[in-house]
Amino acid sequence: MALPVYADPLERVWYYTYHAICVAIFIFLIAPILIVIPLSFNAEPYFTFTPKMLRLDPEGFSLRWYDLLLTFGMAAPDGVRDSSWWADVWQNATWVKAAKNSIIIGFWSTIVATVLGTLAALGLARSEMPFRRTIMAILISPMIVPIIIIATGLFFFYSNPCSILGTECGRLTSTYTGVVLAHATLGIPFVIITVTATLIGFDQSLSRAAASLGASPSYTFFKIVLPLILPGVISGALFAFVTSFDEVVAVLFIAGPDQQTIPRQMWNGIREQISPAILSVATILVLISISLLATVELLRRRSERIRGVTPQ
Amino acid sequence: MSDATSQLTTADGRPLKAALATAQARARRKAFFLVAPLLLFVLITFILPIGQMLTRSLYHDGFSAVTPNLGQWFAANPEGTEPDEAAFAALAADLAKMKADKTAGEAGTRMNYTVPGTRSLFTSTARGADKLQPPFKEALLAEDKKWGDPIIWASMRAASSPWTTDFYLIATDRQRTADGGIEKVPENERIYLWLFGKTFVLSGLITFICLLLAFPIAHLLATLPMAKANLLMILVLLPFWTSLLVRTTSWIVLLQGQGVVNNILVSLGIVGDDGRLAMIYNQTGTIIVMTHILLPFMVLPLYSVMRTIKPTYARAARSLGATSWTTFRRIYLPLTLPGIGAGALLVFILAVGYYITPALVGGADGQLISNLIQFHMSKSNWSLAAALSGMLLAGVLVLYWLYDRLIGIDKLKLG
Predict the structure, then answer these.
(1) Helix axes B192-223, A9-34, angle to 10 degrees
(2) Which residues make Cβ contacts (< 8 Å) with residue A93, sequence separation at least 6?
(3) Could you give the ipTM of this predicted complex?
(4) Which residue among A140, A146, A154 places its CB closest to the CB of B396?
(5) Residues of chain B found within 8 Å of residue A133, distances taken between Cβ atoms
(6) What residue ranges are annotated as transmembrane (chain A) (predicted)?
(7) Which of B293, B283, B295 is nearest to B371 (CA)?
(8) Superfamily assignment of B192-411 in CATH?
(9) Adjacent-strand bridge partners of B182
(10) Is B55 helix (H, G, I), strand (E, B) or coil?
(11) Closest approach of B374 to chain A, Cα-based (Å)
């Protein structure tokens, strides 16, 4: 927005004030996220910049909090760093275990949410779909309903999933399956929203053309439809993964000690004595979100290109 | 026309109308079959658990299951009947049974929800219940005068059925009176409706701050050339993609007593070292951090609406003699209303149910209704937690319905 030539002095002042305000708001948005990165290299156990750090003295910086992420919870953290030490890290380190759990749970819940969500989005995109609006509202609702209500409901439901049938059939609390199902439900709205948005620009005559040339519905889907909507599907899957990777309340209610995830571990850390190790986890997570965001942006552009949609 | 259509037939001789109807029904079925697996999944893992949980707000058999004799007496005698010797005999029999089954605590806990302070009445009386001799009325009143209190009897009558509205009464700061009526609890005990009110007011405030902050940057993004706008958009989307716990941690680091912001203020001499600002672990903390977290949800819908507003409108207004303020107020602002509506409703809906941020940075006075639900869950007062959840859910669903009506769920965009 350039300053128009007919602007009077007051408008000129406002123009620069306005830009200053915008800069301030962008700083408000981004500074809290970036501030953790330098602080995570603090040599002292403080949450603020030490004089040494401000002087850029190398002594003010260290990797000790990153090291703590590996050694915390280990059986023998002080040993020589050979292969058995690393095996110990892999087996026992609290944060490493949490990361493994987060990735396993995130992976499977993403698969469930993406497969079911993409199928449903294909149905929802058809003009013949009955009760389209109502069904869409139901499928998006896990995003809207307060998480505490979902977690409370799951807590009771998982303690005896078959109670509605009047029988007992084990529990889903403190199981991986339980957490995966919960996270899949939470990720579904994101898959639906992203994939339906991609399908709006999808030319249905392409699948009709494939059918008229003798392709079976599944062949048409895998050879024609899927390659075209794939960027949207992957974006949706990444959203679902991030949702699971960042979810803490359902985990607090339904997971057991074996399903400690990174957010759960961070939650504990923030509630109890907050240690700079949290900042090094935060830094790693920020870097992960930067790379995910970059991937989604690239996918969006690619999707626009292959579908021939020109950005406005 | 309808005659002509009905006479047309397909190649195999069927009427065209019927063939079309069959084909359309098949297409509808096909579309529905694609959605069916997910719909079933969501029904089982989402709708059913919440529905089951909500029935707890109306169902509690902690008292009724262990008081069969009292239940019979209440069924036989209408409301308002003065408890007679038969009633006290039934009570004594039930108390003796409670002692044998060790269930006095459960019954007392259920009663304690509606009449605070009665749990010990049940546990202590049940302890000697097997030694009670007729006449039971005198015997029980000798144990504890409270057994003659009409409030106790009115509440026991209400609790003698497992289906109860008691928990919704509690959740709306009401209680039963001795004559079976309903009244508001004393002023200083009204916490639930007050907290609902506070949650809505704070959510409204956060929505308003989000709007104030989102409007200028959405406008800037919408008027910049696409390439530059996309670059700046990353600054909005990065917080959106960053873990909520990371953002909350960052704010703790920034705002706490020995944190970055306070240190800067002290070193600049704006505040003294002993006058460090309390910006976190209180209501201020909740507002700041929630505003930061929800801001992208306001920017995105505003931006997508502002993109479609042609700059020629503003120029036309200016050329017709409007000042820049009039142009903004009469032309630009009304055109952005759909975006303001979409963003504000979405932010408000998400804010009302927020749990994590208030729990971590809210301290004592920055807690919202979700935190109270969690509190009652942790105290195993499940029915009250369910009743509060039911009320919160009803509020959120009304807003959600409004969102769908005004904006449409399918207009929801993520980046």
Answers:
(1) 120
(2) A69, A70, A71, A72, A73, A74
(3) 0.89
(4) A146
(5) 404, 409
(6) 16-41, 103-125, 137-158, 178-200, 221-242, 277-299
(7) B283
(8) MetI-like (1.10.3720.10)
(9) B176
(10) helix
(11) 7
Q: Among residues A220, A292, A115, which one has the least CA distance to residue B238? A: A292
Give, in order, the Cα–Cα distances in Å from B323 to each of A9, A15, B220, B316. Answer: 13, 14, 20, 11
Average pLDDT over chain A reads: 88
Q: Where are the domains of chain A?
A: 96-274
**Residue range B323-378, pLDDT digits in tens:** 888 988 999 999 999 999 999 999 999 999 999 999 999 888 889 999 999 999 99
> Which residue on chain A is closest to B356 by alpha carbon?
A249
Enumerate the domain spans of chain B.
64-160, 192-411
CB proximity list for B78: less than 8 A, separation 6 or greater: none
Distance from CA of B370 to the nearest CA of A (A): 6
Long-range contacts at B85-88 (CB < 8 A, ≥ 24 apart): B85/B134, B85/B135, B85/B136, B85/B137, B87/B153, B88/B135, B88/B136, B88/B137, B88/B139, B88/B140, B88/B147
Residue with tokens 């199981």: A175
Reading phi first (left if > 0) and then psi (alpha if -120 to 50, else beta), residue B269 is in left
Distance CA B146, CA B127 (A): 16
For the domain bounded by A96-274, which CATH number is listed? 1.10.3720.10
Which residue in chain B has the smallest CA separation from A149?
B389
Q: How remote is the C-alpha of B197 from its chain's centroid?
A: 12
Chain centroid offset of residue A116 CA: 18
Rounded (5°) CA angle A204-A196-A126? 40
Q: Which helix (H) or strand (E) holds B409?
A: none
Q: pLDDT of B265-322, one tens digit each?
A: 888 888 888 888 888 899 999 999 999 999 999 999 999 999 999 889 988 998 898 8
